[in-house]
Amino acid sequence: MSTTQSERLRELLEPLVSSQGLDLEEVEVDSVGRKRVLRVVVDSDTGADLDQIADVSRALSAKLDETDAMGEGEYTLEVGTPGAERELKEHRHYVRATDRLVKFQLSDDTELTARILTVDDLGVDVEVPGVKGRKPTAKRLAFEDITKARVQVEFNRKNKSDDQDVQDEQEALEENAEEA
What we know:
About 30% of the residues lie in helices and about 30% in strands. The protein is an alpha+beta fold. Helix 1 packs across helix 2.
């Protein structure tokens, strides 16, 4: 039997979140002055859009109103997604972070920043960016060797689809030049 309020709330809310096609990532209750804040973090393999967040928020609010899970006092319900620099804790988090740059803290007290290429049950294959003109290198990290991992925000990286668009445009220009 669960003992903490967060664990009881997770047991209550997880089936409802799952029924909306989302994963319940976090449940946290904080006190802010006299008020309490219930923060619920949800996600899915394809992400969660604003409509999904609003739907799950209404469903959670209704469920909480019909139970005494939050007690008698006032509280604010906040429902959101993990954010850009999310910490990777579960296998599904690593899968969702495929092709993203991640900062790893390893069990040998070293750090490594690399892009996740593939994920399997035992670990991740990553690409370590090249430094000063050197080519990137591939590396394998076992989950047991990773103590912490956090997605890094990239402001200047082109998406693969952007590269494909550029390639398509170049091919179209070449075809047009040949026809002229």
